[in-house]
Amino acid sequence: MATASPTRPSPTQERLRQRLAYPHFKVVVLDDDFNTFQHVVAMLVKVLPGMGSDRAWELAHQIDGSGSAVVWSGPQEQAELYHQQLGGGGLTMAPLERA
Fold first, then answer.
1. What is the mean pLDDT of each run of 10 residues along the chain (99 residues)?
2. Least crowded by CB within 10 Å, which of 9, 21, 60, 63?
3. Domain residue spans in the chain?
4. How far apart are CA 23 and CA 94, in angstroms?
5. Prediction pTM value
């Protein structure tokens, strides 16, 4: 009775087994002439998990002072959701950027 010797996976199979890092994206809010600081802060606190009022105020001042701020960075699907929610809340958003 012949016994089969274990075969080694092909290089292609090995590459498929390697986990690729899930792409991360930056959510960027842009400065505009119609959103108030209070509205920007309220939207950041409402939409972004773990966002505190103090950090939201810092980001609002950064948006006002430099024209934009990265308000969140992480996995693409979450970035898309937060981008959509913040934009839907009236904030001016830059296109998603790879982190």
1. 65 67 94 98 99 99 98 97 99 97
2. 21
3. 33-98
4. 18
5. 0.80
